[in-house]
């Protein structure tokens, strides 16, 4: 317990006040001779015990009342004594670390946690002769007000006053490391103190470790979090399901979390370009609900969107809005590289062509622009122009491809162009090796495809292992075993597992343990290998063929996306190939003028947008001559919306790292502790009431 | 013929006492006196008033035998006559410190009241040719004036009364016991006291000695009205009159208890007096002493 006004203790002398008043106001007795004094004495003796008790009680109660009054003026602060005094002491080096992350913007009783933190931090930044201090505003990247400890407390307080919570998470270890550097640079003969003021969100502080700090550092932890986590509803994520294509219904998945104790009715307004829709739903307490919005884009290009929670009264407003981007593209064009004839025949490439563009096949009379288009390309005709407009490169029975062709495909794949390779013939093993060699370190296939041994007949193979929860199999749900059971495969290549290969990239395996379907990354693109000869398999005649190919194409073309990048975090985005070279590209966004929006640079075969700390939430567009070639949304990290706090006692134990740590709850907890003076006043009034009761009970 | 008092006592108001000239101090019991008087004597002789017959017993004085009755009935009877004798009254004055109590007005103390009453009694008793004496008891038996009826005796007695002074110690019981030792015969013992003593039973034990000797004992209990009820006010310092010290207190805190205790004291005095065969009379100093005296005499006269 500490006293806010210890000078008021001098008023404790007032405990003599009742005695003084009694002495001053005591009646002056009138001398009267009395013959019957013996009876007076007896009567007094009889009454004395009772009245003595009464007098002592009244004296005690009055003394307690006076002491309580004095104690109330002293403003006692209950709880453990802080390790670090608020006032700066001489010969101390102090670092005040203030959490500036998004959670600090949460309000309780109309006051944000950051405002409480600012007030608490200001107390620790008071000038003292020969004292040195620094202020670290910590979010995704900690920012020190001064490069080294300084005696300019006014500048530190100015920096503190200008600070605002940022829509970022807290990188706690970066902040602690910076504090450790500042304190370690100070002379060892001075007292080192670290004051941490935060709401101690569990998502931010669970990884805290004070061991980088100098051993003799006194750590004072002050929590400004409300006692109970305030209710909060947040939009965690907005993603587009599948590739948004013009004229085709697009689905937007919006994840809403309810960090409240009760269920919440939610309403979300969604705007994308010129389209708008509204969603309603119920979100269970402590759960995340996904709402789906559907809309049909009318035009192609990058479109900015925003999802906004309507009519929500919660602690954190910043997470009630979330920006996103939607790239609306025209119907895809597939480049089918094959040496098989184009005429309709029961060949592997023909089956593939039908599966890739089934509507076009069925409705040949309709407008060509409304459906997928498959361009058959002879391997000899491969060049950049032929493949440049394709959204997906499909390779089937290509024969031996040249090294240049392999290099071309790999370069396209690196920039995001997916490749589906149907490995049916022994020569495909050579082609795949060429692709692997061209990709170099960018391609790590889990298996190595080899020509089958001459004596080995690859036929009547069936699927024994497949990842039922991943695309393309997940779409079949419970009917997957029944759908895949009748399938029999033939042809294809043998495979051998590669050491240090990612086994998860093998999505399906045959009964001879060779790989059936492998999906690996090449730079920003993907290479899928379907190890089967469709001419020798019954897959093409199976009802699962078309949907299986569609799901696989969806996966390869990256149709699930649009997720926002977290604000404050490093950003590196590969621009699509149609963006062209870095020269001539300009970035626009909600960032304040003069603030950096990152850099666009050429990197080998890519154009990369690098940003050491993504800007505030919003949509950033990269334009060439007023045409948007790429867009990206930034948003507050989803985990910042969960305002649950960490148990502060952990800082004294597991997270202390052997340092001396004192924990002090601030904010409403402190207000409650500071309310002690009010309770003392109540006790004072109670004493006076009891005194009246005693006087009434033991009245004369 | 009443004795002519030549006293110049300030307590003797002959003009007021003249109104009581026709009243007599009567005894309730047969008494034994030295001279012939108007009071019934315990002696049954032949010179007094006939009261009864009693059968003759052998050895009795034949002079008292009623010969006429013997002649008529053949049986011997003795005629009984009651003598009349004078009254011998010894007044006991309590001169303890408590008798000095005069209330907050500090006028009209119990002692002063007793002085008036003693003087008046001496005048009345001597006026009817009876003997009156005085004993003063404070921290013991101070003065004793044996009963007498001569005017000079009465004057001396009244002078003694006038000169009464209190002493801070009260030993009433011892004084009465000493008085008992120094007196003989039978008479009337009139005690004027406030009976504020430490040992009341001892006082009445002493009085019982007189009663055993067939004395008629009259206890006049003097009470000052301000003794019955404590004064109003917040703070008083009560000072004892018999080396009792002082007490600072607020009477309001215990007034009821005090009154209960004083009433109990008065009742105890009365009960002990009656139990000892004494005639008890409560005398308030608020009542003029002449009223008290006349009331007493009227009541005694029956």
Structure description:
- The complex is a heterodimer of chains A (700) and B (302).
- With 700 residues, chain A is of the alpha/beta class.
- Helices cover 25% and strands 29% of the residues of chain A.
- Chain A contains 15 helices and 35 strands.
- In chain A, strands 19-18-20-21-27-26-25-23 form an eight-stranded mixed β-sheet, sandwiched between helices.
- The longest helix of chain A is centred in the N-terminal third of the chain and has 38 residues, at 37-74.
- Chain A is elongated.
- Chain A starts with a strand and ends with a helix.
- Chain B has 302 residues and is an alpha/beta fold.
- Chain B contains nine helices and eleven strands.
- In chain B, the strands form three sheets. Chain B has a six-stranded mixed β-sheet with strand order 6-5-4-7-8-11, sandwiched between helices. Chain B has a three-stranded antiparallel β-sheet with strand order 1-3-2, with helices on one face. Chain B has a two-stranded antiparallel sheet with strand order 9-10.
- In chain B, helix 3 packs antiparallel against helix 4 (151-162) and helix 3 (110-127) crosses helix 9.
- Chain B is elongated.
- The two termini of chain B are 24 Å apart.
- The mean pLDDT of chain B is 85.
- Chains A and B meet through strand 2 and helix 2 of A and strand 9, strand 10 and helix 8 of B.
- Strand 2 (30-34) of chain A pairs parallel with strand 9 of chain B.
């Amino acid at each position: 317990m500490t006293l806010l006004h210890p000078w008021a203790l001098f008023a404790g002398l007032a405990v003599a006040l009742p005695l003084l008043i009694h002495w001053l106001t005591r009646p002056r007795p009138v001398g009267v001779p009395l013959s019957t004094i013996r009876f007076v004495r007896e009567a007094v003796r009889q009454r004395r015990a009772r009245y003595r008790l009464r007098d002592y009680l009244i004296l005690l109660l009055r003394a307690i009342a006076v002491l309580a009054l004095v104690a109330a003026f002293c403003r006692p602060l209950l709880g453990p004594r802080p390790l670090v005094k608020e006032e700066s002491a001489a010969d101390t080096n102090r670092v005040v670390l203030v959490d500036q992350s998004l959670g600090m913007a949460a309000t309780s009783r109309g006051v944000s946690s950051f405002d409480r933190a600012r007030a608490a931090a200001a107390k620790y930044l008071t000038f003292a002769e020969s004292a040195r201090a620094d202020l670290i505003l910590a979010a995704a990247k900690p920012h020190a007000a001064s490069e080294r400890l300084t005696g300019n407390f006014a500048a530190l307080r100015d920096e503190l006053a200008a600070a605002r919570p940022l829509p970022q998470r807290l990188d706690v270890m970066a902040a602690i490391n910076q504090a450790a550097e500042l304190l370690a640079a100070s002379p060892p003969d001075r007292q080192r103190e670290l004051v941490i003021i935060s709401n101690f969100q569990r998502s931010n502080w669970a990884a805290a470790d004070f061991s980088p700090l100098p051993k003799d550092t006194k750590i004072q932890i002050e929590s400004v979090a409300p006692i109970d986590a305030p209710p909060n509803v947040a939009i965690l994520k907005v993603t587009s399901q599948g590739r948004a294509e013009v004229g085709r219904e697009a689905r937007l998945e919006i994840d809403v979390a309810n960090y409240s104790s009760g269920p919440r009715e939610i309403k979300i307004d969604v705007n994308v370009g010129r389209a708008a829709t509204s969603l309603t739903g119920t979100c269970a307490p402590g759960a995340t609900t996904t709402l789906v919005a559907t809309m049909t884009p009318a035009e192609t290009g990058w479109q900015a969107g925003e999802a906004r929670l309507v009519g929500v009264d919660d602690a954190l407003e910043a997470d009630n809005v979330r920006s996103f981007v939607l790239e609306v593209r025209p119907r895809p064009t597939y480049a089918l590289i094959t040496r098989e004839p184009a005429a309709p025949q029961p060949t592997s490439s023909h089956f593939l062509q039908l599966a890739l563009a089934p509507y076009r096949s069925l409705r040949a009379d309709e407008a060509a622009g409304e459906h997928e288009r498959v361009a058959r390309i002879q391997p000899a005709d491969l060049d950049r122009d032929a493949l440049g407009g394709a959204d997906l490169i499909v390779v089937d029975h290509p024969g031996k491809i040249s090294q240049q062709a392999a290099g071309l495909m790999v370069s396209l794949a690196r920039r995001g162009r997916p490749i589906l390779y149907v490995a049916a013939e022994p020569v495909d093993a050579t082609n795949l090796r060429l692709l692997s060699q061209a990709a170099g370190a960018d391609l790590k296939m889990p298996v190595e495809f080899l020509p089958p041994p001459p004596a080995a007949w690859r036929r009547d193979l069936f699927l024994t292992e497949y990842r039922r929860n991943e695309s393309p199999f997940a779409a079949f749900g419970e009917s997957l075993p029944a759908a895949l059971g009748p399938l029999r495969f033939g042809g294809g290549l043998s495979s051998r597992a590669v050491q240090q290969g990612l086994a998860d990239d093998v999505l399906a395996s045959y009964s001879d343990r060779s790989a059936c379907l492998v999906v690996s990354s090449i730079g920003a693109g993907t290479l899928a290998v379907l190890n089967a000869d469709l001419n020798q398999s019954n897959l093409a005649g199976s009802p699962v063929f078309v949907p299986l190919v569609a799901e696989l194409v969806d996966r390869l073309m990256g149709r699930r996306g649009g997720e926002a990048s977290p604000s404050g975090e490093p950003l590196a985005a590969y621009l699509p190939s149609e963006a062209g070279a870095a020269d001539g590209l300009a970035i626009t966004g909600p960032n304040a003028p003069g603030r950096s929006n990152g850099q666009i640079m050429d990197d080998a075969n890519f154009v990369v947008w690098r940003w050491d700390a993504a800007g505030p939430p919003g949509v950033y567009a990269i334009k060439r001559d007023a045409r948007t070639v790429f867009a990206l949304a930034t948003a507050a990290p989803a985990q910042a919306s969960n305002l649950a706090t960490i148990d502060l006692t952990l800082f004294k134990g597991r997270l202390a790292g052997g340092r001396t740590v004192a924990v002090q709850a601030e904010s409403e907890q402190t207000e409650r502790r500071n309310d002690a003076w009010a309770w003392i006043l109540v006790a004072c009034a109670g004493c006076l009431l009891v005194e009246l009761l005693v006087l009434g009970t033991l009245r004369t | 013929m009443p004795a002519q008092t030549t006293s110049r006592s300030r307590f003797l108001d002959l003009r007021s006492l003249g109104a009581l000239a026709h009243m007599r101090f009567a005894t309730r019991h047969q008494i034994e006196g030295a001279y012939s008087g108007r009071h019934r004597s315990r002696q049954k002789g032949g010179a007094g008033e006939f009261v009864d017959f009693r059968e003759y017993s052998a050895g009795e004085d034949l002079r008292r035998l009623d010969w006429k009755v013997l002649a008529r009935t053949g049986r011997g009877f003795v005629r009984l006559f009651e003598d009349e004798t004078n009254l011998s009254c010894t007044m006991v004055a309590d001169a303890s410190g408590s008798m000095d109590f005069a209330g907050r007005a500090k006028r009209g103390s119990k002692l002063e009241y007793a002085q008036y009453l003693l003087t008046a009694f001496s005048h009345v008793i001597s006026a009817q040719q009876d003997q009156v004496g005085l004993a003063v008891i404070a921290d013991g038996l101070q003065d004793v004036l044996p009963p007498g009826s001569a005017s000079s005796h009465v004057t001396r007695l009244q002078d003694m009364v006038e000169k009464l002074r209190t002493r801070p110690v009260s030993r009433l019981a011892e004084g009465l016991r000493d008085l008992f030792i120094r007196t003989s015969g039978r008479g009337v013992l009139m005690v004027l006291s406030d009976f504020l003593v430490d040992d009341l039973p001892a006082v009445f034990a002493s009085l019982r000695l007189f009663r055993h000797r067939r004395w008629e004992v009259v206890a006049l209990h003097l009470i000052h009205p301000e003794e019955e009820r404590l004064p109003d006010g917040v703070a008083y310092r009560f000072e004892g009159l018999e080396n009792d010290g002082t007490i600072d207190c607020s009477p309001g805190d215990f007034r009821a208890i005090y009154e209960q205790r004083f009433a109990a004291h008065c009742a105890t005095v009365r009960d002990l007096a009656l139990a000892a065969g004494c005639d008890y009379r409560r005398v308030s100093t608020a009542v003029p002493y002449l009223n008290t005296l006349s009331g007493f005499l009227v009541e005694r006269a029956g």
